[in-house]
Structure formats: C-alpha cells, structure tokens
Amino acid sequence: MTGNLEKRGIRPYYILDYSNPLYETNSLSPQHPDSVRAFARWAAAAAKHFKNRGVVWEIWNEPNGAFWAPRANVAQYTALALATCKAIRRADRGATIVAPACWSFDWPFLESFLKSGVLKYLTAVSVHPYRSRPPETAGPDYQRLKELIARDAPKGDKIPIVCGEWGYSSKKGGISLQTQANYLARQQLFNLYSGLPISIWYDWSNDGTNPADLESNFGTVGYDMTPKPAYQAVQAISRELSGYSASRRYNTGNTNDFVLVMTNNAGQTKLAAWTAGKAHSIQFGSNGYIRLTQTPQYNTVR
What we know:
Blueprint: H1 2-7, E1 13-16, H2 33-49, E2 56-59, H3 74-91, E3 96-103, H4 107-114, E4 124-128, H5 139-152, E5 161-166, H6 177-193, E6 199-201, H7 229-241, E7 245-250, E8 257-263, E9 269-275, E10 280-283, E11 289-292, E12 297-301
Parallel strand pairs: 1-2, 2-3, 3-4, 4-5, 5-6
Antiparallel strand pairs: 7-8, 8-9, 9-12, 10-11
Helix pairs in contact: 2-3, 6-7
C-alpha cells in the first residue's frame, strides 16, 4: 500500500489504533501499563519499518467519543499518547506524529491533553471538525485551538493544526449533492487559508446504498463508484490550483465573502472566490466584476 501511494505522489497518513485482545479483554482500549507499553512498542516498530517514507502517524481515532472503550477518558488516552510519542521518537527522531484526532472541538478534552506536555513530541495537533454548519464556521474554533497550542507548546515551537477527517453526508433529507460538493471545496480552501497543512475529506466513496442513511453518503463517489458532484469539485481544485498557495484574503467589506488570492512559485495569481451568503457581484480591480455564489470559482488575475 505504501509503495502504491508513493508512486502516485500521495503521502501516507496512517492511524495507530485499536486494541489487542492479548492485553485488553472485552475490546477495552489500552489502559493498563502492559497494554500501553505493548501499543507503544508496536507503534515504534511501525515507525522504524517505514522510516524516511514520509508517513504521518496519527495516534488513535476520536478518543473523546465511542472509539475509546468502555468510555472516553482523557487521562487514559493521554497516557497512551505520551508513551507512544516517546517510543516513536526513539525509533525515528524525525517522525511526523499527530494527535489527538478529536471528534469536533471537545474543549475540556483538548485542554487537558495539551497541558500534559505532549506538545514536546507532536508535529501537529489533529482534529475532526465535524458540524452541520458550513465549513467557514470552523474559523473561531481554529483560533481558539491555536491559542491553546501557543499557551502549552515549548517556547519557540510553532505547532500547526491538521484536519485528520471531516466531511458532510448527502443523505436523503440532509444537504443536497451540490451543497456537499460546495462544502468539500470550501472546506479545503478555508483550511488552506487558515494555515492547516493537511485536510482529509471523509469519505472517498459511499459506504452503502441506503440513500437515507447518514454514514452511507459521505463519499465523493457512489457505492458503485459513480462520480458525485463532490468528485467533480475535487477535480476542479486539483486542476485549477495545483502548485498554488493562499497568500491573503481580499476584503470585499462583506464577512460572508471569501476571495482568496492564490499564488505559485512562477509568480502567477488566481482567485478562489465564493460567498457563504446570497449570490452577488463584486468588483476586483481591473478584472472587472466577479459573481460570487456558494460554489467556488477560480479566476486568473492578469
């Protein structure tokens, strides 16, 4: 798998989880000393095996929710994360390690975790910013988390946030297929603007065929691999903005407007533009008028 990803220029992002029945009965998460040590040894062995392959290691999945058994426990998870970080660093000092992969922004969980000293070992803090509201509403949450990281990080360290998982389901009775596509593009662009170096969309394909089931309809393609509008939105971003980064947000005077000035190493400039409000037109310098809608558009600036 790792080799296939490398051939396609995709950096592996591997999640270290879950329990081992040799150490924990009834599928409990690692919480006893022997279990924690075994998990850390396993993680270190994986890091050593894949050393210099560019792997991003994420410790567990949403430990503040149902994925930590029998129930979420920040002290137990933090003990596991610290032991795992230290073991990976001994195996590969330059490893990329992210955690805690929280579901949403669980502030009590995050504050306790970040105060533990774990930021000494982490490359980035990972979150899963799920919500029913549009992607841009994550802005205040990102700002609050950045302030917590700055408070607890070792002096001089700048530790970014990464989006380890986040998507919107197009289930029947929920958002439309086109809104899902809009949200995918806007999530990726807004995260880029917010300084997140990694943004992973959940999910690649629908997990089932029931149109009314939430979990079955997060995909960019259907269960039969038929492309959805979300797939086409990914294609558009890749085609239009490959090699570009967000340099600034153009101020239109409307807080719902997002006009990102994108530049590349060749000195070329494009606009990635949309609005979270009602469609309207704006004037942008000599480029004339730009029509802003909830679907991002990409314009070359000359």
